[in-house]
Fold:
Amino acid sequence: MIKHPNFTIAPEIKIALDLGAPIVALESTVITHGLPRPQNLELARDMEKNVRDCGATPATVALLNGQIHIGLSDEELVRLSDAESTLKVSHRDFATAIVKKANGGTTVAGTMFAANMTGIKVFATGGIGGVHKESSFDISTDLRSLANIPTIVVCAGAKAILDLPATLEYLETMGVPVVGYQTDEFPAFYSRESGLGVSVRLDSPKEIAEFAQAHWNLGMKSAILVTNPVPETESIPKSEMEPIIAKASAEAIKQGIHGQKLTPFLLSRISELTEGKSLRTNLALLLNNARLAAQIAEAMSGKKKAWAI
Ligand code: PSU
Ligand code: MN
Structure:
């Protein structure tokens, strides 16, 4: 187990790591920047509960007072979700948070980094970042991390606010397998459909665990992106979302919003424009991903870890 002065690993996570028991890492940008209050705290608690109900230990990753925490107590979750000012922590921001003793939510990229350092291989999020439509130079660090950090990332596809074909091209170039869970189609976050394909369809957590083992046993270093479509009852058709996303994107351009602020702006504007419907979908897909990640972690824990990573 790592001993690093900037990491604080919760006692429960230390025990699970020692036992080789299933653990699911959870990101926290969704708590600090992705959702409004009080839904952010409710969601954080519900994500942890869903992971536990499926027999795994949740490890929410976040920065508190400049310390990288792997696993938060309920009191720490409250502190994070109520914090007045928080950083959005991706790779380049860890040192900033450390020297400024800041609180921060880790993005997909940031969470992958911290989880992998700790030895946690399975991670659940809502939707990964990708290539933005507004500017093809705005490419999320999430994609670079998917290329370099050997973890299983469970998501509902890339956020529909993105250029999905370009995002998939980038993942292909970087050698990242894109798994469709019980689907041949790449899900588009709010919608189950995108008209785009995945690189492989797998139908059970066991198959996904076997796939990961095969990939990493070959010495591959990339992540495996598992895309899990939002449940049918909560899915919003692509045709309904497209004009709303176009409107929110046009407003972002007009207001000059870019960089780290763009994704949070688009998510909250889309929630306003759909009168909360997209927010409910976002919450449903996050919980759905937590459950699948826990099942995959369980299937992985039964596997001999032959790969050298
Ligand atoms: N998924 C959600 N809500 C979010 C995010 C993902 O349902 O807020 C966050 C993730 O942490 C992801 C980040 O890493 O948005 C992407 O931000 P950017 O496009 O600036 O890289
Ligand atoms: Mn960006």
